[in-house]
Amino acid sequence: MDEEYDAIVLGTGLKECILSGMLSVSGKKVLHIDRNKYYGGESASITPLEDLLTKFGLGAEAAGSYGRGRDWNVDLIPKFLMANGQLVKLLIHTGVTRYLEFKSVEGSYVYKGGKISKVPADEREALGSDLMGLFEKRRFKNFLVYTQEYNHEDPKTWKDFDARVQTTSQLYEKFGLDANTQDFTGHAIALYRDDEYLNKPATDAINRIKLYSESLARYGKSPYLYPMYGLGELPQGFARLSAIYGGTYMLDKAVDEIVLDASGKAIGVRSGEEIAKCKQVYCDPTYVPDRVKKVGQVIRCICLLDHPIPNTKDALSTQIIIPQKQVARKSDIYVSVVSHTHQVASKGWFVAMVSTTVETANPEDEIRPGLALLGPIRQKFVTVSDYFEPVESGDASQIFISTSYDATTHFETTCKDVLDIFKRGTGEDFDFSKVKHNLGEEE
């Protein structure tokens, strides 16, 4: 460990592995260290099933009734990829797709008035949706057509609405959309986590609605993708990418200290008697508890099911979003379901996850509306995790810290954090053209 690196990355959570790949691709000399023996950190996939049962304090012998233990790959923090989103673009541009196989998620649902309905994402679906009355369907159809045709560079497509200054609330008003339609559009299509977006310029909302529709257009059933064998494949894919560009990996290596110079700037990482020198450190919050603040908690409940979710037409995978207002909360509840078709469970079995941001002293009570949608649950595992954010940008210390994983079941917030950290650390946006690849736009 006596050579000097441009960057040392601590932890092999998905965010850190993506960063390691991006930094390596950008020509940086990267050393990647993790105190664990496995990839993924808190976003790991657990296999076989016996390990999951043991982790949550159950005897491994209980695995016998769930088929073959090695057929299970259970994500601790499952998330779906938007088919046309940032992470898929990153995977394609960086060539990581050569190591992975994806399957589209079969359904995208939203909760309203005690039941779930398919999220309408194009004009045809809008007209057939049971979420709206006849006249509202027409208004919503016109709204969708408008957002698809809106071009920020071409004022002719704006039709007397300037999204740079006028708010999303004003955009909804322009089309006469009722509160219910605004609710599922904002939370299940634009994927906002609260209603603050309503009073902000509509540009971002239009972009998000476009992203949902473009992602849906690629595969048809839903806008979401999920990797075969679980999310644990993603960190390893980016680790291989980093290695191709000269990155060095060390698993099962203790990290005792980030070494600072007299001005408080990171100059290395110490493990036992060894010090690896570097110019920058990138890490998850667990490596620098004194440089992060707790801003909340997330509850997640992993559920093992032997049946598909009721009212989803027996979908083998699905996402359900419960908008905050539907259950008198400040934050949405997310439900994700994957199954044996993704090689993450034994045949005939399903893995559901219900998650939300904790708001009360009784977190399990808060996810009850999500659990109620699942039907009979064979086994469940509940975790409540602290949510940390860095207290500094990293400019002075050259230590760049990711946030914890939020309650969402999609990757858009994760990508935003990664691209933001990359820009803080390098002073520039990630340049996709630096990647040597010849994969083209893969489907």
TrEMBL record:
Any one annotated GO CC term: cytoplasm
Any one GO MF annotation of this record: Rab GDP-dissociation inhibitor activity
Domain of life: Eukaryota
Major localization class: cytoplasm
GO terms of biological process kind: protein transport; small GTPase-mediated signal transduction; vesicle-mediated transport
Presence of keyword Cytoplasm: yes
Subcellular location: Cytoplasm
Alphabetical keyword list: Cytoplasm, GTPase activation
SUPFAM superfamilies xrefs: FAD/NAD(P)-binding domain
InterPro entries: FAD/NAD-bd_sf (IPR036188), GDP_dissociation_inhibitor (IPR018203), RabGDI (IPR000806)
Function statement: Regulates the GDP/GTP exchange reaction of most RAB proteins by inhibiting the dissociation of GDP from them, and the subsequent binding of GTP.
Family: Belongs to the Rab GDI family.
PANTHER family, A to Z: RAB GDP DISSOCIATION INHIBITOR (PTHR11787:SF8), RAB GDP-DISSOCIATION INHIBITOR (PTHR11787)
Protein name in UniProt: Rab GDP dissociation inhibitor
Species assigned in the record: Isotomurus palustris
